[in-house]
Amino acid sequence: MEISKHELSRRSALGMFGAATATAAWGSSLRPQSARAADDLGVQLVDNGSTATLSNGTLSFTVTKATAQIQTIQLIGSEYGNESFNLVGGPKGQGYTTFDYYVGTTRFSKGLSGASYRVVSQMANRVEIAMTGSNPASLPFYMEVHMALEKDSPGLYCYMVFKYPAGMPDGLTVQQLRYAFAAGDPSFTYFVIDDARGIQERPSIQDTQQWVTLQDTTYLLPDGNVWSKYQNISNLEGDNHAFMISNGKLAMSLIQASKEAFSGGPTRQELTAHDYYNGEILLWHPFSSHYGSPDLEPPKGWEKIYGPFYLHVNEGFGDDPEANVAEMWAEAKLAALREQKKWPYPWISNPLYAADTRSTVSGKLTIADNVSPKRAWIVLSAPIPDRQYQGVTLSGKDWQYDTLNFVYSARASKAGQFKVPAVRPGRYTLTAFADGVLGEYTRKNITVGSGESIDVGNLVWKPVSHGTTLWQIGTPNRSTGEFHVYGGADGFREHLTWLEYPYEFPDGIDFKVGVDDIATKWNYFQPAYKTPGTPFQLQLRGTTEDHSLTTWRIRFDAQGYAHGTGTLDIALAGDVFGTLKIVLNGTELASLDPLPGPPGDNSSYRLACRAMYRQLSPITFPAALIQAGENILTLSPVRAPLAPLTRGNTVDNWMEPMGGVMYDVIRMQVKEA
Questions:
Q1: CA neighbours within 13 Å on the CB side: how many for 357?
Q2: How far is CA 267 from the centre of its chain?
Q3: For a Cys-Cys bond, which of 336, 360, 440, 660 suits 241, CB 3.0-4.6 Å?
Q4: Residue pLDDT, tens place only, 513-539
Q5: String of DSSP letters for 631-656
Q6: SS in 3 state form for 335-365?
Q7: What is the pTM of this model?
Q8: φ, ψ for residue 455, nearest 5 deg
Q9: Is the four-CA dihedral 661, 665, 671, 672 of positive or negative sign?
Q10: b or e along 363-384 (b: 16 or more beta carbons within 10 Å of the residue's beta carbon)?
């Protein structure tokens, strides 16, 4: 389908790039889970030759031994006539692995193949099987995929063991490890990511046959709305433990009781569920380089266990499919709470999981000046060395960049008490951060032994200050969501917001401190170009391309200073190939090229208001540069955005036109001499 730019007025983008989802109200009551075991026979394992079937009277699934592909999942204990329905049936339906990686400069995308099969344990109350790939001719690493079924359970467990032993090819770089559940039946139209977004429906098959590709897995529907799998990233991965797909009668929910194995820690974002051919798909990414996480570059001898996750299956019994989905979602959330309480699962015998040697680390966080520590994140991470990545140095002090180890986290209470459970023995750095407070608290060398309850005491955090605050734009919260977003609070998910920037801010940002409102006058990201967007997107929008670099102005009044030191603190919530030049009243304070952290974190063009957080080193300057009366601070790119070389020595540069930075907070302070 072709759309002429003349068919679209400037304001028609409001409809063209409108919200693609609708939210349904939740049911006020919770019906009991309906599936039940037909016979109290415990868990049965049937060896079919090339496949194996596990069943418990409630649930049954069949897996191919050589590939770990699941062929069928059935709720055989259904009370409402759903017992014969295959949840991974239909065209393209299956459970399957995907591994994206480089060996040297050659990229591969493969699944498990030629695996050996074994029964790990077989008891009446639980059966666990494993499919293992260890042949370097098939995969350049060792991979075990484990699956388990418990008695009466309406769901299955799955986890992976990844190893990079000697004898495997050198030069391994991993970009993605994945297990996915594809529901190929076209009856699957509903999904739920969280309560805030509610019940959503995928586009119809007819619409997908007519949509226009705007960019990577992002489409313009015939009704003018935008649809993208990136609309359904999990916004606070540390707090979200379940997401679901459904056909209105049955549902599958992927439940993650713990996030300890994921790189990126509690603020990590990840893909969850979306449309898939004529059905839908659930995604489990034990590792990925999405949203700025560095690639995994394991040393020889490295090994790690990922998961388990729990795939929960339930059903509804009413005539209203959306009401059924609401009920099934409510029950799935209860299931997630139950799984969290079970963690760590005592039945996993692999020593990498260390189920019987975990410890609890507790304490209290106190923030100076009576700042509330409520819901502050407490993070325990292993100390790692600095590393080079895509031409920049990633700090080993930042747990966001740790791809090799486990990261443990918990929230603090209103009074500051915290308890980080299920921590493996080792030496850790404790990091704390809280909304409204710039920076982080850090305490090094916390030693955790086996099976201990460790109290680290009262941790007193005195946030760094450089004097009297003249002004501050934004609230430290590692997000730009409080700033202006075209289309409203969630507009970054529902629109290609960058296409509206030149119409909303044709002269860039010109912000007057103390007068202007950040919710209307400060855009949630600063694009590098005055007209951000790919050539096709700009043509579709009716915008003449202008690749002049943007300049944002901050105006503020001051009394002037004869002596002393000024300090500018800047924290970024996202960065896509960004650079930054900072000028005060005509004097350049800093030229930052490159910015710290990964050079591209996908935040803007993958429909997010944050990705990899980074706090710039304080920028100091003579306070005498601040003059009496009005002052002007300008922010602009040093140069045009430039994508780095890939491992294959190519440039994936289609995202460059959406390059720029997202400011979490900007603060100016002065300390008089």
A1: 12
A2: 7
A3: 336
A4: 999 999 999 999 999 999 999 999 999
A5: EEEEEE-SS---PPB-TTS-B--TTG
A6: HHHHHHHHCCCCCCCCCCCCCCCCEEEEEEE
A7: 0.93
A8: -110, 115
A9: positive
A10: bbbbbeeeeebeebbbbbbbeb
